[in-house]
Write a structure and sequence with these properties.
Layout (H helix, E strand, L loop, with lengths): L15 E11 L2 H21 L4 E7 L5 E9 L11 H7 L2 H4 E9 L12
Helix pairs in contact: 1-2
């Protein structure tokens, strides 16, 4: 899932808060199960590496489609903590075969948030 990042800050030294929403459909329930397994591996790697500049949420919808919400703050020349994870590279491997149709990925503007610990 290519992510195009836009620097919307006034200072090049200030970390940019990238906000991306990505949605795609699964080819089948079995493909959705495999996709979910690979997504969980990404979360396991993030839990081990514990980057302090990322928030990542993935939802599996009732129709076996997925929505990824990622928020990460880093300078434009720094590494994306999600995209650089080895488990994310594994997630991307064969993603086109598990997916039905195209990926809809859009930058998002945060309007507000209220978050409690879930799970």
């Amino acid at each position: 899932m290519p992510a195009e990042h836009v620097d919307n800050t006034t200072s090049p030294a200030t970390p940019v808060q990238f906000r991306l929403v990505t949605r795609y459909a699964s080819r089948s329930p079995e493909a959705a199960d495999e996709n979910e397994r690979r997504v969980k591996e990404v979360f396991e790697e993030l839990a081990q590496s514990r980057p302090d500049n990322v928030s990542y949420l993935v939802l599996r919808l009732a129709d076996d489609s997925f929505v990824h919400l990622s928020f990460h703050g880093h300078a434009p020349d720094e590494t994306n903590p999600i995209g650089s994870a080895a488990a994310f590279a594994k997630f991307l491997d064969g993603h086109g075969e598990r997916r039905r149709g195209d990926i809809d990925q859009q930058r998002a503007t945060l309007v507000g948030a209220y978050v409690t610990r879930i799970g």
